[in-house]
Write a structure and sequence with these properties.
Blueprint: E1 2-8, E2 14-20, E3 23-29, E4 41-44, E5 49-52, E6 54-59, H1 77-89, H2 95-112, E7 114-123, H3 130-140, E8 147-154, H4 164-176, E9 180-182, H5 191-205, E10 208-213, H6 223-234, E11 240-244, H7 253-265, E12 269-271, H8 274-280, H9 296-301, E13 305-306, H10 325-334, H11 340-346, H12 349-354, E14 370-373, H13 378-384, E15 389-393, E16 396-401
Parallel strand pairs: 1-4, 6-7, 7-8, 8-9, 9-10, 10-11, 11-12, 12-13
Antiparallel strand pairs: 1-2, 2-3, 5-14, 14-15, 15-16
Helix pairs in contact: 2-3, 5-6, 6-7, 10-11
Bound molecules: zinc ion (ZN).
Zinc ion is lined by residues 58, 60, 120, 212, 243, 311.
């Protein structure tokens, strides 16, 4: 048994939280020290706000932290893909290097308050499932502290005779072990065909599907509709998600509502990824530059599950990024026009739901995956994002950060 003492519970309330067997066993008003039995394990949270731990629905741990090694001066999606392919061909992307950087990236996630992450990992003709093996090796180091889901991100094309090598690489990845099948229908000559290949493979393997969907601004491209219809027609009921969905944001309100209704009916989660899409999209549109975000409100109005992620972190697809979901939440407030509490749900429990994990709450019986942050409110935490945090995985302290600030005047 352990007590997380003096935790901020919002609205000026402070509580002591007892954890037993990984779950919250009791919550009381904050008690004076003298009333706590001397032999009880105690963590003093100093009044910091205690919240559900955060989760990252869309990372690329095989690419993270390569911004210097793989430069992308063009700054757009094709520039990033070309830069990555060239670096791989030059032998710069090694299995050992991927494992090492993925470990660093997971450390960063953990210290910011993340206890669950879904990562896409490249699976291609040229590299087979080597990157999946490398990220798997990194994930084993975090077995006790992070839920890690791996998506086999299949290279393009994935269909037709030209896609045979990619499909063979996917078969290899399924043998190594992945949790979901991924790919990019908007980059394939046969987008609908790709959706079918992905759903067939996932059905056979008994796993989920998470596709990079319509990551461009051309409103004529809308494979999200095909994806949702196919999921509904098949009755596919494993985990299913559509990441990006940028072109949905470029449609008329009527089309947004129609497609969002299909997405909700298909039980698909949608992940807006504001950092990377603000970075990659709209470089050819100097006037009224689009934001590259999906139609968040239309999806919410239709009842679809929307969670938000950081996507690329300090690689050719996005040169910056802190691996801090509070950065994503801030962008969902500023660029996605969400209220702060809703933005926080989008980087915590909505992600957990999309990943098939149980929800977490400051309630008796809840799993004690929690983060304490030195902030007065969720809004304040998102605004300041202080590096003063305590991260708990099933009640065990797994990461800490303490921020020193001094002002001399
Ligand atoms: Zn991605």
């Amino acid at each position: 048994m352990k007590i997380l003492r003096n935790a901020g519970a919002g609205e000026g309330r402070f509580v002591d939280v007892t954890v037993q067997d990984g779950r919250i066993a009791n919550i009381t008003a904050h008690l004076p020290d003298s009333l706590v039995p001397g032999d009880t394990a105690v963590v003093d949270l100093q009044g910091w706000l205690l919240m559900p731990a955060m989760a990252e629905p869309h990372a690329h741990l095989d690419k993270a932290l390569t911004a210097e090694m793989v430069p992308n001066p063009a700054g757009d999606l094709m520039g990033a893909i070309d830069a990555w392919v060239a670096a791989a061909a030059a032998g710069q992307i090694t299995e050992a290097g991927i494992t090492e950087r993925a470990i660093k990236a997971m450390d960063l996630l953990l210290v910011h308050g993340v206890t669950a992450v879904r990562t896409h990992v490249n699976v291609m003709d040229s590299i087979g499932a080597s990157a999946v093996r490398a990220v798997r090796a990194a994930a084993t180091e975090f077995a006790d502290v992070l839920d890690v889901q791996i998506v086999a991100l299949c290279g393009s094309p994935m269909t037709g005779p030209e896609g045979a090598g990619t499909r063979a690489a996917l078969a290899e990845a399924l043998e190594v072990g992945v949790d979901l099948v991924g790919g990019c229908p908007h980059l394939d000559p046969d987008g609908v065909g790709l959706i079918n290949v992905a759903l067939d493979a996932a059905t056979e393997a008994g796993i989920g599907v998470d596709l990079h969907v319509d990551e461009m601004l051309d409103p004529a491209v809308l494979t999200l509709r095909d994806f949702a219809k196919e999921v509904i027609d098949r009755g596919f009921d494993n985990l299913v998600a559509a990441s990006h969905c940028v072109t949905l944001g470029m449609q008329t309100p009527e089309v947004q509502a129609e497609v969002s209704a299909l997405v909700a009916e298909a039980n698909m989660a949608v992940f807006p990824l504001p950092q990377t899409n603000l970075f990659l999209q709209g470089r050819d549109n100097p006037t009224a530059t689009p934001r590259g975000l999906t139609a968040v409100s239309a999806l919410q109005d239709a009842g679809a599950l929307v969670a938000a992620g950081a996507d690329n972190v300090q690689d050719p697809f996005n040169l910056v990024g802190r691996s801090d979901p509070l950065e994503t939440a801030a962008l969902m407030v500023m660029a996605g026009h969400q209220l702060p509490n809703d933005a926080y749900d989008m980087v915590s429990n909505n992600v957990r739901q999309a990943m098939g994990l149980e929800a977490v709450a400051l309630e008796v019986g809840s799993l004690a995956d929690l983060v304490a942050i030195d902030a007065p409110s969720i809004r304040g935490a998102i605004a300041d994002a202080p590096m003063a945090r305590r991260v708990f995985r099933q009640g065990t302290l797994v990461a800490s950060a303490d921020q020193q600030v001094s002002v001399n005047r």
